[in-house]
């Protein structure tokens, strides 16, 4: 068990992992390079620990010491106790959940590893919005997707906002990067998956009319731009979710949830 220690200086080097959490560009580069990510909130921290991620440290406001008691007892990582004003000064925002943990990343698995034994996978192209990415991981976990595959330019699933929105689902669903893109889609097809590209483009057929195969990969693109022409050309089928009242498409997070439910085993 680590003994909680009060920290009163926002420039204390022990708090370095938590500085400037609102600086997205800095964190995108720094966290993967340093092999860390930030888990926010009691449930997310517990789920990260349960998923086998090693804790580097915790930053707690005093009222969360009792709530996080079991986690503190089980770790030898340092526990830094700060008042809410200092937490805000360090992180750059109001830490209303009062509990943050710096966690060590795991090596990213190979595509073949996450596909082994899988029957339903999500393939994401160009998803750079962390909120949408987190929502898709949450739906993937809830609706029985076995894995998520990401194009090289997709956002980091372990970025704080994505983890928070997913409620820790990023720890429950295996994921890997498909590189080169979209050439590596052939790897998915060679593993026996039928790739269905979600798009409102002309020629796409109603998802409900497509016979879902034993192994199915549902591919979605970024908000607004959607899938690229090259990605759609590499797919086995172009499918769409029928719209009403003149609406042309759903938010990608909503579309993913609908598609995952429609393709459930």
Explain what this protein looks like in three dimensions:
- This protein has 265 residues and is an alpha/beta fold.
- The chain has 2 domains: 5-104, 2-Layer Sandwich (60s Ribosomal Protein L30, Chain: A); 111-262, 3-Layer(aba) Sandwich (Alpha/beta knot), CATH 3.40.1280.
- The chain is 31% helix and 19% strand.
- It has 10 helices and 12 strands.
- A 7-stranded parallel beta sheet has the order 8-7-6-11-9-12-10.
- Strand 3, helix 3 and strand 4 form a beta-alpha-beta unit.
- The longest helix has 13 residues, at 130-142.
- The termini are far apart.
- The mean pLDDT is 93.
CATH fold field value of the largest domain? Alpha/beta knot
Spatial ordering of strands, largest sheet: 8-7-6-11-9-12-10
| Low-pLDDT stretches | none
Q: Give the radius of gyration.
A: 20 Å
Mean pLDDT: 93
Largest sheet: 7 strands, parallel
The CATH architecture of the largest domain can be named as 3-Layer(aba) Sandwich
Q: Helix content range of the residues, please?
A: 25-40%
Question: Structural class of the helix and strand makeup?
Answer: alpha/beta
How many beta-strand elements?
12
Q: What's the helix-strand series?
A: EHEHEHEHEHEHEHEHEEEHEH
